[in-house]
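Worked example 3. Consider a protein that binds iron/sulfur cluster.
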Amino acid sequence: MRHGATQSRTLTRLQARLRGEAGRAIEDFRMIGPGDRVMVCLSGGKDSYTLLDILLSLQRSAPIDFELIAVNLDQKQPGFPAHVLPDYLAALGVPFHVIEQDTYSVVRRVVPQGRTMCGLCSRLRRGALYRFAAENGIGKIALGHHRDDIVETLFLNLFFGGRLKAMAPKLLSEDGRHVVIRPLAYVAERDIERYARGRDFPIIPCKLCGSQDNLQRRAIKRMLAEWERDWPGRTESIFSALRHLEPDTLADPRHFDFAGLEARGLRPMSMEEELGLEEETRTGAQHGWGADLAAGLPGALVPGSAGVRGGQGGRVFEPAAKPAHGIDSASDPQSGRA
Ligand code: SF4
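Given these inputs, the predicted complex is written out as structure tokens:
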């Protein structure tokens, strides 16, 4: 659907959901405040188009004033249709800027043939975009990563890095000069796909660079898709777990004072204490999905998955190998697509 055409009811409902989820993430993590200048990184992929679209929509109804500046990095990939984004943004009337920097040649020169180029490409892109933000007094940088990117990154780190590490909805950039935000952190990728189709965004293909796919990420994506098919709601359950950490059940003394644990002693317990303990156990058991649903957290349990609880019945994944390093997300600053 091109700009200005009438939107179907289904698309309007989907837009309302995306607005709600993005609005909740912005509020939960205090992503945007009055007077903020927010740089929206646009790659031309579905995620970044959706991000800009939803932020513009929220900006119109927000109780505070903030500024949005769309920024694209033209990496000089062969065949990149340089006019597409400027035409789209000019028609929208959004302030925008295109940075031109030939990161493509650098990546091609440095990365051996047949290897994935995304790591270096993302780092160079991040550098160019952060530099632009610093030079233009922009404090907030919005990226299009969504819930599925976050869960995939969790499993990449778990399986290949031996760390419980995902991708935060809000973080400080490495040099401490910017706050990076991910307003689509609660949004499912399938909803973004539907929305992008419905809005008929002029998508620029991702594979112009000719990079090999990241095989590990592809395998994780496939695994999660199979799980989701067999147990609908599982991805949401995993994402919910990221919001309900229980460090005393893990094994990292930096996050729980195991050394300081002391037993209460061996005196007999009163009936009230025993009942209190029982009560505590009972309440604790409700802190999984049931509590999430009651609190209206994103992604209600899909019919058929009843009984799935955070913790998955105590099933534990062990890291496959001793950690060499943490895998640092798909931190593609223009979108979540790399
Ligand atoms: S797929 Fe995206 S991140 Fe990866 S090398 Fe190509 S342009 Fe860069």
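Take a moment to read the result before moving on. The chain has one domain: 1-338. Residues 9-28 form the longest helix (20 residues).
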